[in-house]
Amino acid sequence: MPLHTRSRLAALAAVSVLAACRAPAAALGAPSTSDELLESLAARFGPHDRDARFDALRPRFAKSALVPSKLFHDNTAWTATSGDTRTLVLAGHGTPNHYALVVAGDAPPPVAPADYRRVMRLTHDGGDDYAWNVRDELAVGTVTGDQLGAALTALFAAAEHERDGADAHAAIDHDLPRTTAALGRAVSLDTLRLTPNKDGGADVHLAGTIHAERLTNTFPRLAHYLSHYVSPTGGEILVFDDANRAWWDAAKRGDAWSLDLRVANGNLAPLRGPPDRMPDHLHVRIDAATRTFIFHVGLANLVGDVTVTRAPNEHAFTATFRKEPDWQLPPLVETMLKAPLQRPFQGSGASVTFDIRDGQAHEAPTVIFREYDLTVRESRIMRWLGGLGDAAVEDFRTGAETEFDQFAGETLSALRADVAQLTQTAGQ
Fold first, then answer.
1. How many separate domains does the chain show?
2. Cβ–Cβ under 8 Å, residues 241 and 247
3. pLDDT of 276-297, one tens digit each?
């Protein structure tokens, strides 16, 4: 599944968990605040229309991610050129019933809920090196980072004091009936286990299954895509600190997924040892592998440094990767790819940032940012590597994407309706 689609799925799951009981929903503030947030997400990540220019550019950018020189020299692909930098600006606006994405070189920063802007920059760094910088901005109304943090605290506190995972599972089904029905068409939560930790707090274990077969009749192309491209993909993401204490662990093996974390005093805590405040500097280790045609391709021990920002009006984290992972590639290919695959991790490395900034001026919106930086070195072998994903990208773009957008939009709209009912009940 393309990176941006996995991000959308992660956002969908994260927001669903955030609203998984009455207390977190109430912590989001007035009903209008949570409604603006969820309406913005449902609009942006649901079905949308694209103008003709954007529709034509999308496959070209997808195929050029690792070999961008030809795209760099095509001025028709960009909304602005300046020296060795090319820029493409996209804008989105509308409601869950009608949302449009267009090429718009003069798009202003997002203002109204669901307003969106993407700025893509490609810089020629000399020789065969090209640096990507991509920034997404989405306005989500008046919700603040502190309110989102309070919702998480309420969720963690509820998990900490709940002693029966079955009761907690039943509470989710009761409080979010529309959401569990909509999301359950593709993903099940099979296990929710809450266990008191001997050092304080509670261990939380969630496990479930991705069910492509459930979508065969309603979303056939998405079902095909999940079974052919997502099911063969597996991996693990582990977050740990300088003392080598693990803070949470997420894994996927085939169609099975799991998440392990620990909560104490309304906050995340290390999985083992005394409860502690999460430090501002962490590390993440990623393992991932998939099967493409006859090839098994993957990486292991991709370690990044994570910086957490906690400011009065900003909450963010940045993961920076400066160490090349262990590649899992066909032997001859791995030898030929060595130099080009080292390049993204040299210098300042590759990075990804997620950021929530509260509006500062009167009626200014809260904006969610995502930004990543990646430098690639072109080569014939990089073309081979990029070509491995062409079939998956094309299959997704020409059928599964529309169905996924519909699925995500319906699920987020269901969550919006559930949260509206919860906040209304909490106010009575």
1. 1
2. yes
3. 999 999 999 999 998 876 678 8
